[in-house]
Structure formats: structure tokens, C-alpha cells
Amino acid sequence: MTLLVVGAGTMGEWFARTLAEATTVTLTDTDPERAAAVADRLDARSVALDTDERFDTVCFAVPMPAVEAAIAEHAPTAERAVIDVTGSMAEPIEAMRTHAPDRERLSLHPLFAPENAPGRIATVADAAGPATDEVRAALAAENELFETTPDEHDRAMETVQAGAHAAVLAYALAAEDVREEFHTPISGPLDDLASQVLSGSPRVYAEIQERFDGAEAVAEAAERIATVDGTGVEELYREAREQR
């Protein structure tokens, strides 16, 4: 199978590397030098963004704001299947249905940074077939795949990404620097988590906040905690326990 990966960033490189043994990989990117560098590392090849070549499968590994335009431009080059690994699902799937209605369609969301692979991958097989089955089999060799729906996935991202990132960022902005000896079994891991989040790409985190709701709910909860008395805080702890 021949595979074109549109987007040679960290996720595109991870996907290309993971599929390299099962497919013949080609990369393209808005930055041709980046695509060429990734291709060299993977012993693959790169092509210009406006290539007229056709491939069995085209994978979109671009930033979320760019995915719909990328699908519109490159889906016609796919002979068999189109795939996205952008992080959202409802909008890419709708775009793939529009621009590749007679192709196999698969949406994937690796729930980890590429440098932390392998891990869990959310999957929606919108139109499954031999090509997408081959891709899923290659990914399942090292990763744990689970099925979801576009709506369930995007709702979950409001909590596990937008809300979680907002809560950690708020702690990082509010916390004062203290000696290591003062950290508790709660604050120590939280401080480590903040460091982990802050080591990531601000642009990617910003895209997540723009795409998914969730930060507002965290802000509202923090406001409730900050504006009640001791008895009210106790009630909030009880409320949180009941929700879990």
C-alpha cells in the first residue's frame, strides 16, 4: 500500500514511522524542507504539496484549524482511503465524507504525545475496508485501539483535554515557587504535571482550547470554591464525590 502523509510535524512523523513497515510512505508539508528532513530520517521520500501523484491512502496530520482545507485539497489523490489524526473528529469526518464519499474513511486520535508512544488511540471507522483495516492492524501491534463515535470523542475532549489543560495551566499561573521540602503528596505530582504540560507546544494547547469547550466549566468551578465559606467548600467536596 502507498501512503501519503500530509503534514510532517511530530504527529505526521510518528504516523509515518509507525506505518513504515506496512506501507510505502511519502510525506508532504507546507514546509518542503521539513518534509524532506522527516523523509530522510524514515528512509522515505517527500513530494511537493501540489503533487498530482495518487496514493492508496492519504493521512492528514495537520493542525486542527487547517484540516478541512487540507482534506478538500488532498482527498482526491486517495485511491482507496482517507485518514485523519488531527485530534478532533466530527469536523474531519464530515469533510472526508464530503470530499471522499466513495473512499474508506478512518479518524484516529492518539491520546499521547508522539514522544510518549505507544499508547491508547481512539478510532472511528466511518467507512471501513481493507486499507483502513491494514492501518489499524499496524497500529494495534504496539498501541491499544478503542472505538468511539465522533460526538462521544469530541465531548470527552472537553474534559480530558480542554478542561484538564485549563485546570493545570491555572495552577501553574497561580502557584508560587516553594522549596521542594514543602510539597505534599498532592502538590508534588501536580507541580510535576504542570511542568509536563508547560514543556509541550503552546500552539497545540491553544488550538485545543479554541476547538473544544471545557475551560469555562473549570473557571466556574474555581469561582464557586473561591466564593463560599468553609461549610460551602465541604459541600463542594461532597458534590464532587457524588459525580465520580
Automatic annotation (TrEMBL):
Tell me which residues make up the Prephenate/arogenate dehydrogenase domain: 1-244
Please provide the Gene Ontology terms (biological process) for this protein: tyrosine biosynthetic process
Query: In the UniProt record, does the keyword Oxidoreductase occur?
Result: yes
The superkingdom listed in its UniProt entry is Archaea
* Swiss-Prot/TrEMBL keywords: Oxidoreductase
Note one Pfam family from the annotation.
PDH_N
Record InterPro entries: 6-PGluconate_DH-like_C_sf, NAD(P)-bd_dom_sf, PDH_N, Preph/Arog_dehydrog, Prephen_DH
GO MF entries: NAD+ binding; prephenate dehydrogenase (NAD+) activity; prephenate dehydrogenase (NADP+) activity
Family annotation (PANTHER family): PREPHENATE DEHYDROGENASE (PTHR21363), PREPHENATE DEHYDROGENASE [NADP(+)] (PTHR21363:SF0)
| UniProt name for this protein | Prephenate dehydrogenase
